[in-house]
Amino acid sequence: MLLQTVTPVSVLGTTVAFALFLSVTAHLAARNVLGDVDPRRALYVGPLPAIIGVVGGAFSVSEALLVPAALLVDGAMFAWSYDQPRRVVVGMTLIHAVITTLLGIVLLGIAVLLAARPA
C-alpha cells in the first residue's frame, strides 16, 4: 500500500488547481450566458468555492451541506464579478455547475483510462 503524506504545499497546490479549473469553467458559463466577456472576471469566481471544497473535504463535512454552500458562494461571486440581475446570475451558476460536472467527469475518465493502459 502506498502511503502519501499530506503537506501544506500539496493542499495549497490542490486548492490552486481546483480554483483555476473552476475559474475556467466559470468563464465558459459566463460566455455561454453573456457572450463575449473579460476572462479575468472569472478568476474572482473560482477561488472561494475551491476553498470551501478543499476545507470541507479535509474536515469531512457532509456533501449535503458542502454543495449548497459552494453553489451559494459561487452565485455570490458571479453576482459580484459580473454585476448582473439575479435571474442571470442563477442561470450562470447552474450552467457553471453543469459544465464543471461534465468536464470533471470527462477529465477523470481520461485519467482513469491513461492510468489503466498497459505498460
Spell out the key features of this protein.
119 residues; mainly alpha; globular; transmembrane helix; transmembrane; membrane; DUF7473
Shape summary: globular
Structural domain tally: 1
What is the number of E strands?
Answer: 0
Question: Strand share of the residues?
Answer: under 5%
- In whole angstroms, the N-to-C terminal distance is 20 Å
Main sheet characteristics: none
**Element string (H = helix, E = strand):** HHHH
- The overall pLDDT average reads 93
Q: Count every helix, treating DSSP H or I runs of 4 or more residues as helices.
A: 4
C-alpha-based Rg, rounded:
16 Å
Which structural class best describes the helix and strand composition?
Answer: mainly alpha
Question: Percent range for helical residues?
Answer: over 70%
Uncertain segments of ≥5 residues (pLDDT<50)? none
Keywords: Membrane, Transmembrane, Transmembrane helix
Transmembrane segments: 6-30, 94-116
